[in-house]
Amino acid sequence: MDEATAADRSLADETYSSLLEEILSAQLSGGAVIQERRLALRLGVSRSPMRDALGRLEGQGLLVRNAKGVLTVKVITLADYLNSIAVRLMVEPSAAALACNMISSEVLAALREMLEKIESDPDPLPAFVWAFDDALHNGIATASGNRFLADIIGQMRRYTTIFERQRKLAQRKPGLSDHQAILDALTARDAEAARNAMTEHLEHIRRNVLSTY
């Protein structure tokens, strides 16, 4: 790969990451029309990396075509959300159990430090709360040692994250006791406890969302 091609690839990756974060954080909300030229100008990129990034997001189902063929941000419905949680319930407890033997003490210490900051802060920044949630769940998925599990968890978490953030369903300090139980089980290297703690956490999330409807 020559330098020009590598630079184009890097710029496309950066553009993709920027747009993905805007979708996950609800800056680009469900149903929003994607205006390629305007987005390219705002992000300061040419249309080539923008088209590459949009193609990837469309391929992942986060962008869809409406009846007129216009590219829009996918609206995550309650059914989408519940189906995503159902898939997570099938795979994420297993990932937590597998991670007990793989996740490092350094990662666990960093996660515990983040959780303690959230717990001690009367009004933690939502961005920091979401950063912890991402670090915990993505860290467990990666530490499972199973790339396929990690890919599925990552994809399903995108849908649940978009739904929660677009509808502002997350509490100021969501799932503190659940997250503590997961970290305790991982620290103890207790696979069954980690499996059960993750299952209980996801069930709590599902019930909390249903209670708002």
UniProtKB/TrEMBL annotation:
Gene Ontology MF, one: DNA binding
Keywords, in A-Z order: DNA-binding, Transcription, Transcription regulation
All copies of domain HTH gntR-type, residue ranges: 9-75
Keyword ATP-binding included in the entry's annotation: no
InterPro entries: GntR_C, TF_FadR/GntR_C, Tscrpt_reg_HTH_GntR, WH-like_DNA-bd_sf, WH_DNA-bd_sf
A Pfam family this chain is assigned to: GntR
KW Transit peptide (keyword) present: no
Protein name, per record: GntR family transcriptional regulator
